[in-house]
Design goal:
By secondary structure, this protein is mainly alpha-helical. 57% of the residues lie in helices and 6% in strands. The chain has one domain: Winged helix-like DNA-binding domain superfamily/Winged helix DNA-binding domain (Arc Repressor Mutant, subunit A), CATH 1.10.10.10. It contains six helices and two strands; from the N terminus they run H-H-H-E-E-H-H-H. Strands 1-2 form a two-stranded antiparallel ribbon. Helix 1 packs across helix 3, helix 1 packs across helix 4 and helix 1 crosses helix 6.
């Protein structure tokens, strides 16, 4: 399964905010762009989507920026996927009739089950778990 760039960028943006989680210090867009290699115009659009579903909040002013609206432990990958592209983990059944429809129905059920499994797995992965995994796999160099 290929993940669209917009989901990858949204994940990276939320991950960066989770790494810097502190409501008293919002993270500026340029900081997120530089840290995660996300084009600024694209990031602005994604942050607005994430803000509309209450994953991030923003503050204005010279020291303003974006911050997570709730702790990283309460934000899952499924939340980000749904915020950016709600069709990627959803199944929609089309009504048809006849023999072809029966075959389509079987295929739809299979895809529906796969999507449910994917959604369940994405809901289990929260950003605090991702951060923990990153910190536990960091390489340490001794000189």
């Amino acid at each position: 399964m290929k993940i669209p760039a917009k989901i990858e960028y949204a994940y990276k943006a939320v991950l960066e905010l989770a790494l810097r989680y502190n409501k008293d210090n919002p993270v500026q867009i340029n900081t997120i762009c530089e840290a995660q290699g996300i084009p600024k115009k694209f990031l602005i659009h994604l942050l607005l989507r994430l803000k509309n579903v209450n994953i991030v909040n923003s503050s204005r002013g010279a020291a303003g920026g974006y911050y997570l609206s709730r702790p990283p432990s309460q934000i899952s990958l499924a939340d980000v996927f749904k915020a950016v592209d709600d069709t990627i983990i959803s199944s929609q059944k089309k009504a048809q009739s006849g023999r072809v429809a029966d075959l389509d129905q079987q295929l739809w059920r299979i895809w529906s089950d796969i999507n449910k499994d994917i959604e369940h797995r994405l809901e289990e992965v929260t950003f605090d778990k991702l951060i923990s995994g990153i910190k536990n796999t960091q390489l340490t160099y001794y000189i």
